[in-house]
Write a structure and sequence with these properties.
10 helices, 33% helix, D-Maltodextrin-Binding Protein, domain 2, five-stranded mixed β-sheet, alpha/beta, 303 residues, 3 domains
């Protein structure tokens, strides 16, 4: 039998993305992976708000293309960046064990932020939910890699980051950083946040088998349920959307808001069938949107 070769792993070139590709290699064991670094639309336009570039997909399309054209065997993504609709020719082959899905404030906690404090985040989803809990807060846009955003943190009351990124780069115990996780009861994370999504070609049976060994069933159920919710809202939905499947409670919670954050709807459903959960939760929020301008925004992507 021929010895297995390293899998060529298409990835973005940030420190976090490279860590993720190397982590997949560690999970697979020898001979691991060889990173194939790809620059994406989102990387090239680092000063443009993500929702203005078309939302999901701006960090993954070029990475997927490297697999489809044979430059790489697998694509390693942050699951939160992946479109909810499958890409022709590719399959989501594995979701390894999920890291902490929560968002976090860096620089202060919600309790210690003074009245009127300025919070930096490029995410309308985060801003809308924080404003609903603390209407006194003000907000500033912020994009860039992890190091860039952390370097700018002293200029604000706090910046919002993903806990998974801080943990993966071993920053959660940095004595110079005050980090306070935001519970999902206050801020629902982005769909798939904290999880990795590994794609390969549909017809690559050998790679599919190798990736199957690092699948985590509980994490896959959670990511599938959250992605099903997004898909049923509308695969191209660029409105602020958040979701979290709590495996301990068997509950999927979701939210959707207008781009200005003034209308925010949230609901939860229970069960273990990811497709059914996503459909049910999306339907409930669409009913809740009736009579508001949010329904018109959603009709634009659902209809």
């Amino acid at each position: 039998m021929a010895q297995a070769r390293p899998l060529r792993a298409a990835t973005r070139g940030s420190a976090l993305a490279l860590w993720q590709a190397e982590h997949v290699g560690r999970l697979l064991g020898a001979p691991g992976v060889e990173p194939v670094v790809v620059e994406t639309t989102g990387d090239r336009a680092a000063d443009v708000p993500i929702h203005e570039m078309g939302g999901r997909g701006v960090f993954v399309k070029e990475v997927q293309a490297a697999v489809l054209d044979g430059r790489a065997d697998i694509a390693v993504h942050s699951a939160k960046d992946l479109q909810s609709v499958p890409t022709p020719g590719l399959t989501l082959a594995a979701v390894p064990a999920r890291e902490d899905p929560r968002d976090a404030l860096v620089g202060a906690s919600l309790e210690t932020l003074p009245v009127g404090a300025r919070v930096a985040t490029g995410s309308v989803r985060r801003r809308a939910q924080l404003a609903a809990f603390r209407p006194d807060l003000t907000f500033a846009g912020l994009r860039g890699n992890i190091q860039t955003r952390l370097a700018k943190a002293p200029g604000y009351g706090a910046v919002v980051m993903a806990m998974a990124a801080l943990k993966r780069l071993d920053l959660e115990h940095d004595a110079d950083l005050e980090i306070a996780a935001l519970p999902p009861l206050i801020v629902l994370p982005q769909v798939g946040q904290g999880a990795l999504a590994i794609e390969c070609r549909l017809d690559d049976d050998e790679t599919l088998a190798r990736l199957g060994a690092i699948e985590d069933p509980a994490s896959r159920l959670a990511v599938d349920a959250e992605r099903a919710f997004l898909a049923h809202l509308g695969g191209g939905c660029d409105l602020p959307v958040g979701a979290y499947y709590d495996p301990d409670r068997g509950m999927l919670s979701g939210m959707v808001a207008t781009l200005d954050g003034r209308i925010l709807l949230r609901d939860s459903v229970s069960g273990t069938d990811p497709e059914a959960l996503g459909q049910q939760l999306a339907d409930r929020l669409l009913v809740g949107a009736a009579g508001s301008s949010l329904l018109e925004d959603l009709r634009g992507v659902v209809g």
